[in-house]
Amino acid sequence: MTDICRSNSNYRHMKLKYLLIIFLSIFTFRYSYSQEYLPQMESRYFTSDSISVLKPKPFWAAGEVIGTNLAVWAFDRYVVKESWARINWNTIKSNFKRGPVWDSDKFTTNLFAHPYHGGLYFNAARSNGLNFWQSIPYSAGGSLMWEFFMETEAPSINDMMATTFGGVALGEITYRLSDLFIDNRATGWERVGRELLTGIISPMRGINRLITGESWKRRSYKGRSYSNVPVNLILSMGLRFLADEEKSRKGSSSLHFDLALNYGNPFNDENYTPYEWFRFKLGMDVINQPLINQVNAIGALWGKNIWQKDNRSLMFGIFQHFDYYDSDINSKNSQLIAPYRISEAAAAGLGAIYYKNPDPGNKTLVYGELYTNGVALGASLSDYMKLGERDYNLGSGYSIKGGAGLIYNKQLALLLNLENYHIFTWKEYDPDLDWSTVDPNELSVQGDKSNARLTVFSILLAYQFKKQWSIALSNRFFNRKTDYKYHDTVDYATYDLMLKVGYRL
């Protein structure tokens, strides 16, 4: 562990650096932008000539949730031949008798795959005419069914939380995103492409359109669920370098792809419904790093425009958050742990968004935001616990996020973002535990007794060309300081660099 522990002087250096970052973020509030999302320089309005209102089918939605679980279980049982899929009445009774535990699946499975699975349950309800709030029980119910009935392993506390709450966030976002591409007037290959894209983004919606015949029926109207939505959707590709640690020039290089989406208008508080405004980012790497290495989502559950004067607006609201950062060990170095792993799977809190739109004498758009959240389920990399495929600690805590942005003439943007997570792991293992005797499926712990303070700081310079193309250069810093009860404190930092070209749809 000596290669990743920082000296006291380095620690003081890091503290001063981040204090400076915070100071600059405040001082240059009008010269930055949050969370590395390319700003809404000029939104495209996705309009529909009609609104498609589906008759609620709660029982059909429940049948699809059950069918989804049975299909996934059958694949695991008969194709993959997983031992934990060999269920019977005795395993089901045993699950109810044992009750929920903290499981030891790998980071990707617990903090991304399960939330995505929950999004399928949620979309089964949404695509059958149920609204946002009515769909939440389906995400929770699908998770409960899977944990108690479809596995021989004990029900997982963290899985039920991640599947339910993460599923709500990813489910609503994918439902609304798929809606942008539906057009019942289209024919031929355009129609095929639109239906395929809808099904890829929201599989349950695609299945329901096949069942009802809407996938091929030609109408005189588009048939979307939302009529007039301002959207800024950018697909980017470029090169990424992730350093082994701070000040190091060694690391891994990869081909990076990402999708950044700004949806809706946060200041339109008429008939406000959940996720009328949200922001979403998906980052993927090819070679050396996990395919899916970043997912960020912020969705407004409720919002109110509390102050407006001339071209300035301030909105206050309640927001749901979902964050996922993952990295892999570079095989060319001697590190024992990955550079970082961070998750905020179940989180919500208060937030404020500020806009100052350009005026005739000033072409500058100013944007700022601040959020504070309670985190019911989060995760951070562990330096000491290696339990099967698990190398991270689960826990709960809080997070604070802030940023600001300057956009000049709808083309040039300087963006800053600062995210801070504080995750407490309170259900630990016995420090005298003999690991050689441990069954990963039977040890119900969150991880090392610890608290982890995680900071992600990013700066991005972007230029939007007159048409759809853009170019962006970004630099992100990751810092983690974990205080362990039974082990030495670890203070670790690293950074990455990205140069990418974007296309606005």
Describe the structure.
With 505 residues, this protein is of the alpha+beta class. It folds into two domains: 29-46 and 231-428 and 445-504, Porin; 53-212, no CATH class. Helices cover 27% and strands 37% of the residues. It is built from eight helices and 13 strands. The protein has helices spanning 8-27, 58-79, 89-98, 107-126, 132-149, 157-179, 188-201, 203-212, and strands at 44-47, 228-243, 251-263, 278-286, 292-309, 312-326, 341-356, 364-381, 392-408, 412-425, 450-464, 469-484, 490-504. Strands 2-3-4-5-6-7-8-9-10-11-12-13 form a twelve-stranded antiparallel barrel. The protein is globular, with a radius of gyration of 23 Å. It starts with 7 loop residues before the first helix and ends with a strand. Residues 1-36 have low confidence and may be disordered.
Please tell me the total number of domains: 2
Looking at CATH, which topology of the largest domain would you report? Answer: Porin
- Give me the CATH superfamily of the largest domain: monomeric porin ompg
Distance between the termini: 46 Å
Overall shape: it is globular
Write the layout of secondary structure elements.
Elements: H1 8-27, E1 44-47, H2 58-79, H3 89-98, H4 107-126, H5 132-149, H6 157-179, H7 188-201, H8 203-212, E2 228-243, E3 251-263, E4 278-286, E5 292-309, E6 312-326, E7 341-356, E8 364-381, E9 392-408, E10 412-425, E11 450-464, E12 469-484, E13 490-504
Antiparallel strand pairs: 1-2, 2-3, 2-13, 3-4, 4-5, 5-6, 6-7, 7-8, 8-9, 9-10, 10-11, 11-12, 12-13
